[in-house]
Amino acid sequence: MTRSLAVVGKSLTRLGALEKVTGRSQYTGDLTLPGMLHAKILRSPHPHARIVSIDTCAAQALPGVAAVVTPRDVAPDTRLQPDRA
Amino acid sequence: MKIKKRWKVFFLINGKRRSLTIEPHWTLLEVLRDQLGLTGTKKGCDRAECGSCTVLLEREPVYSCQVLAVQARGQRITTIEGLTRNGKLHPVQQSFIDHDGVQCGFCTPGFVLTASAFLDRTRRPTPDQVKQALSGNICRCNAYVKIIESVLSASKRGKRIRD
Amino acid sequence: MHPFRYAEPESVAEACRFLKRQGTSAMPIAGGTDLLSEIKDGVAKPESVLNLKRLPSLAHIREQDGALRIGGMTTLSQLQVYPVLRRNFRIIEEALSTLATPQIRAVGTVAGNLCQRPRCLYYRHPLFLCAKKGGTTCFALDGDSRYHAILQNDLCPMVHPSDLAPAFIALEAQVLLAGPEEKRLLPLEEFFLLPGQNLSRETVLKPGEILVEVRVPKPKAGTRGTYLKFRERGAGDFALVSAACSGRVLRGTVAELRLVLGGVAPIPFRARQAEEMLMGQRPKKEFFAAAAQAVLAAATPLSGNRYKIEAARTLMVRAMQAVLK
């Protein structure tokens, strides 16, 4: 082994360290893309309850709302299934 | 006394005067990120616990997520984008690179700003003083040992930066 | 955060008049570290918010004949670096060093710290309509009571979260309240209300009244003080139990003693029984332990907070040992 090693045994600067200490590093929440929409999840206010119906009219009527998605908008075979393993 | 829903304000951000119209319930963090595009300030917990959103308000570190922007009108604000001068890193930034005080980097802007304000006031801090000064910032990667090393090393560089 | 209107009064009088006129729909804001959490959590829903922090007449620290006068809008970090603190008001300095984080101390104010709302998880949760918020049930009494009161806890076992309050009371501080018509000065100890006196509020502040100044008398020569605090995290955490103690030993016997506990009752709890037992006695550890025991004989712990009895006993004894020598 005469060839000197490029990485092993050397102290290297972390990749991206400069971007991170200057705040230039882009995280998911920092991205803006053309046509980007924002989603908000509405969670149940009840710890244990049965969903009888979902009325999305008021949410749909808010200015700027592109879509309100409920399980009805998802094809049954692609829904998340309970783990049966 | 005017009671208003919209306020026309200015801030002195990183040495520059920025004027805009804001709503009173917007936090300083929301104004910096969403109105001014300064995304180096991070939104972590949004409840004054994690320190990712730390900026300097009149040279003191504050949680920008828990300060109403309108309350800070007219004041001097330093964000991570303003710490680098003419392309030259602040000693704390250089030290975080040299001592590997960075992992995922999400908490880094907050830590760097908190540390820079602390070193402006404390010339030769003890490790314990550094820990106390950084106690309002959380690093989920758990890089604390290297972060403290970075700040102690920066304190020995002895370079003070003033607005 | 839900939207609200915002105003900046030009004087204390204007602020008081506005707050009185608007009733509960308007809320004063200082540093906002507590109020904004409440608004974000949907617990407070003000229509308008009134910024007191820009009132220059409330941001002073002055010494008058050795006594300290602290404007309500003084930030905790401004108070922390006030030079005379280390010499004569050690309890305040120690309390501040354990209080919150540098970022919160930079914006949080002295008045805000004394007027902050309880941290009870049920109270802070938007979906629990607890008795304090006008409901019929206290969920903590039968629920998670880890952080709750062991004394005076029958109606609402909230604990008062302030670190400064026990420290100030141990120093016999007074508070100056300004209202639309008049000002009044009262001992800080009388500023706080038990849930039995008022379930929805924690202080004697009337509509339109604000806390404008804290006055701390200069301790007599030879007085010692300390503030001790148990907490889960080593930094940035509220007290599980804390003890503020101020006292003086003269010619081998206890000449003065004030012992105030945080984290054990809905108000800062003055351990008068211990004070009375020790006055005129020689400062000995057995007496301290007996006095602490007597105070805690009245404790009525809930299912999750029995540990606070031992913690309070330990802190009281340690505080008295540090002060009475």
TrEMBL record, chain A:
Pfam families assigned: Ald_Xan_dh_C
SUPFAM superfamilies in the record: CO dehydrogenase molybdoprotein N-domain-like
Ranges of residues in domain Aldehyde oxidase/xanthine dehydrogenase a/b hammerhead: 22-82
GO molecular function: iron ion binding; oxidoreductase activity
Record-linked InterPro entries: Ald_Oxase/Xan_DH_a/b, Ald_Oxase/Xan_DH_a/b_sf, Ald_Oxase/xanthine_DH-like
Keywords: Molybdenum, Oxidoreductase
Protein known as: Aldehyde oxidase/xanthine dehydrogenase a/b hammerhead domain-containing protein
TrEMBL record, chain C:
Pfam families: CO_deh_flav_C, FAD_binding_5
Gene3D superfamilies noted in UniProt: 3.30.465.10, CO dehydrogenase flavoprotein, C-terminal domain, Uridine Diphospho-n-acetylenolpyruvylglucosamine Reductase, domain 2
Boundaries of every FAD-binding PCMH-type domain copy: 1-221
GO molecular function: FAD binding; oxidoreductase activity
Keywords associated with the record: FAD, Flavoprotein
PROSITE patterns xrefs: FAD_PCMH
Identification of the protein by name: Xanthine dehydrogenase family protein subunit M
Species the sequence originates in: Tectimicrobiota bacterium
